[in-house]
Amino acid sequence: MTSQTTDAPEPDACPTCHALTTTERQARATHDHSRATDYRILLRRHLDTTHPAHRPTRL
Ligand SMILES: [Zn+2]
Q1: Angle at 37 between CA 10 and CA 48, to 5 degrees
Q2: Taking the CA atoms of the chain, what radius of gyration do you get in angstroms?
Q3: What confidence tens digit (pLDDT) does each residue in 18-33 have?
Q4: For 15, how many CA atoms within 13 A lie in the half-sphere containing its CB?
Q5: What's the CA-to-centroid distance between 25 and ligand 1, angstroms?
Q6: What is the pTM of this model?
Q7: Is the pLDDT of residue 3 over 50?
Q8: What distance in angstroms lies between residue 1's CA and the mean position of ligand 1's atoms?
Q9: Distance 2 CA to ligand 1 centre (A)
């Protein structure tokens, strides 16, 4: 059985993903659009570097 060498957890279990998603949602809830965008970019970048297999391939 081959296992990929991933030292990162799944996005669902990743505290960084969770924190970024939560903060982005809170920013949107308070209509803080620039902050929401910032966190969305941070999440994209984090997915890109930490969970490349889970990165959304299209937008
Ligand atoms: Zn993550």
Answers
A1: 35
A2: 13
A3: 999 999 999 999 999 9
A4: 0
A5: 16
A6: 0.73
A7: no
A8: 25
A9: 23
Question: How far, in Å, is the centroid of ligand 1 from the Cα of 24?
Answer: 14
Tell me what pLDDT residue 8 has.
Answer: 65
Handedness of CA 16, 12, 38, 5 (dihedral sign): positive
Please check whether residue 51 is in contact with residue 21, taking contact to mean a CB–CB distance below 8 angstroms: no
Residue 39 burial (C-beta neighbours within 10 Å; 0-12, 13-18, 19+): buried
Reduce the DSSP state of residue 44 to 3 states and report it: helix
Q: Is the pLDDT of residue 48 over 80?
A: yes
CA distances for 58 relative to 31, 40, 48, angstroms: 25, 15, 13
